[in-house]
Amino acid sequence: MTLIIIFVVSFVTGLFASLGLGGGMILILYLTMIGSVSQLEAQGICLLFFLPIAVLSLIFHTKNKLVEWKKALPCLIVGSVTSLVFAYIATLIDTNLLSRLFGGFIVLTGVCMLVRRK
Fold this sequence. Notes:
This protein has five helices and no strands. By secondary structure, the protein is mainly α.
């Protein structure tokens, strides 16, 4: 049964990630709530999980001319540096606080989606 659940969670996470819908939240929630993995470890696993998905998605989007590299390159550079800095900061934060911050982020995101006007 556990193997089936892992397969389903991985499939849904990969599907949502490929569509740009935030599959990482599903994976992190599964790992922390059901898999008994610490928040920091779950985030690391999630990042590792998304490397091949990101590469494949980038290949397909570039092939379909959906990537504007002049706009994407500065985002890539700043995002990479920011990720390094905050990955280090995350290792300094207590795991319980990190979990609460992540939960607050999920709630805030949900509220913003509910009240956002088109």
